[in-house]
Design a protein that fits this description.
The protein has about 525 residues and is of the alpha/beta class. It folds into 3 domains: about 1-95, Roll (Archaeosine Trna-guanine Transglycosylase, Chain: A, domain 4); about 120-270, Rossmann fold, CATH 3.40.50; about 275-505. Helix content is about 30%, strand content about 15%. Bound molecules: calcium ion (CA).
Amino acid sequence: MSLNPSSPPDSPRSIRMHAADNVAIVVNDGGLPAGTVMPDGLTLVGRVPQGHKVALTAIAKDAAVLRYNVPIGYALKDIPAGAWVHERLLHMPDARTLDNLPKATAPAWNAEPLTGYTFEGYRNADGSVGTRNILAITTTVQCVAGVVDFAVQRIKEQLLPRYPNVDDVIGLEHSYGCGVAIDAPDAIIPIRTLRNISKNPNFGGEVMVVSLGCEKLQPERLLPPGSIPLQANEALDVVCLQADKHVGFMSMIDSVLASAVPHLERLNARRRETIPASELVVGVQCGGSDAFSGVTANPAVGYCTDLLVRAGATVMFSETTEVRDAIEQMTARATTPEIADAIAREMAWYDAYLGRGQADRSANTTPGNKAGGLSNIVEKAMGSIIKSGTAPISGVLSPGEKLQHKGLHYAATPASDFICGTLQLAAGMNLHVFTTGRGTPYGLAEVPVIKVATRTDLARRWHDLMDVNAGRIADGEATIEDTGWELFHLMLEVASGRKKTWAEHWKLHNSLVLFNPAPIT
Ligand code: CA
């Protein structure tokens, strides 16, 4: 990556990601006007907005436009040097076929193990570790959501003050459970997602369920015997609203509160203890991306991913449509040919899923992405995959599956922020890292979300929403390595409960959103 950090802040600045690239992106807030002379002597022949690409040389019609040393498109007409290269000038490359992929061909990863880093967490009976201490009320169906919400407010007002070690009480609300083709093959995805979320490490192994009674997703189907560890001699703790004993609304609320008490007592007895950093389970994703995502925030997250893997921790990257164009890199980095095959299998499943809806990966980019300088999904993907760092990919999860071992995983999920976050929760994440360029106030109630801004302008305006400013990398004030280490240390602080994220401070959180590729009835 080449930039000109020594120049004054308001002088014209651009960033080229690779020496072979024939475009660079403009760094300056507000972009640069026509006639601007860049430090290398290039004169802009038109205005170029911030984050957008400028042609470094004349690019002939049909020639490749290279960013990250990858063809992100082919010129639809001759583009002069110094011109703004926007998406209307580019023809997007076709998706690579899933045949003849390199499998586990990357050179061995010889990074030194990182030892001695710890955090203060809650060790669970199953060996997992929580970063927060939360009573989560599992629901079988959306019908009970209003009642559970009412009960949660009552628990917070009347019970929680008696249990000072419990951080929060939340209802795991969702739109599934009835009115769905529950025997369709793909229904396994939303069902196992809900099942595995109830076992998230932040909930301490305490599972209580509120059910309506007549729904398709009966409690025994959601949590069959053996799927969760129960206290000795206890059955699954279910409050059924349609039970005969409930006469009047308040009797339902009383039942939920009574059920909550033993769970709160056990959660309240939990104590933080010193835990090696290897027990962190970090989900990384991006949302509201711009052209800086792949220059500042995502490379810093990628550096931090490598630190975490070196420390023996678990990292998941996801967002299938945003890594589809990096498939060769992924299968090459797989630890075994079988892992490479699993990556390709998830991509093929997603291609078919999109195809059923008469769409493809190009449906991913948003108006905001394009306004931020990302011409198409190929350019977006090259900036997105960097979050995965350079470590070998040692595991693959289908949507809603739970992690079985440590290391870097490709957890196949849609790129939708809430769906990706929900599926990473089901996988067992105890800390979430989210990068954004356009800005989103995203948060989850279940785990802390550390938000990383790609640009200083965003970090300045959203100073009480963004936790890390990776824009300093583009400003020449910090390196990718500095910012990666800053994020790593912040993760240990946040995981330990010593620091709250801004989303936690303001209690901002988004809904759980299930991925349901199966039919609705
Ligand atoms: Ca996303």
